[in-house]
Amino acid sequence: MLTIxxxxxxxxxxxxxxxxxxxxxxxMLRNGVFLTxxxxxxxxxxxxxxxxxxxxxxxxxxxxxxLIPVAVVALGIALxxxxxxxxxxxxxxxGNLLSLVAGVLVFVLPAVAITLFALSTGPRTTTWNVVGVAxxxxxxxxxxxxxxxxxxxxVYSIVYGRIRxxxxxxxxxxxxxxxxxxxxxxxxxxxxxxGLALYRAERAAGRHPALIPSGGQGADEPRPEGTAMAExxxxxxxxxxxxxxxxxxxxxxxxxxxxxxxxxxAGRDGPIVxxxxxxxxxxxxxxxxxxxxxxxxxxxxxxxxxxxxxxxREFVAVIVEHRWLNLxxxxxxxxxxxxxxWESFQQR
Length: 348
Known about the structure:
By secondary structure, the protein is α/β, with parallel strands linked by helices. Helices cover 65% and strands 6% of the residues.
């Protein structure tokens, strides 16, 4: 008799939650959690069925699991290589260091956990042995939590970026991303070109949306991003009467809030399409939802080498923005570790 356990039930439950929540609002981060959960339990179900009906399949799965350490090493090397490339191509900044730091942590954190376990297992049980094991266990739990959270974020970022949004925008907002010597660099040009494509499609359909390039002046910029972006849009065919630059924002949240003010101030109220790079779409969509904007977000292409560091930067930003939720999510791990410590000391 074939027994596959509760995996298909969980897969169906997570899929149901994903479908319901995405239909309610595709901009919610929890959609990524539900989608990832559905995919994981569906994979477990498939593996369980194939292992039961295909001779030798379970052995093949076991051998594949043995390759996980090799995959982790390959991931660490790839991240370090990407970090070095980012520093060479984009300069020495904290954001450009993220993939390099992540690659180093891929090697350092397992090494620290294994060392703590090794040092804490011996013929004599001391207080430091118990504490070392508890710290190692906590590291495994917390790192596992953030690894799963990153996978869910990355998966749904890709899925959300491929959703076809069927709205007729009253405004197309293009988010700024920094100037180089006062001029539009390739990364920002990609956003502007996607915004222009949407604008032209709307004009061809007989509609006249506003084009709102959004970005203030950074400390290292000679002029506001919105001004340079507006010049680019007009130079590439946009009607100057439709280009309404926003030049005061300093963050994505301000981009969205101030651009909405520009839109309504110009008497062009209505739905919004927000344009940013593909790695940034989900976080921009989440912020738009927080501001209760009638908006969806579309992405423009990004240079391949830039994507890993950019995704990491967006993930860190989301973790910081939802820090209390993440602290609450990690609290059971801390409590469980504290319980293990208490039990160990009680038995001594």
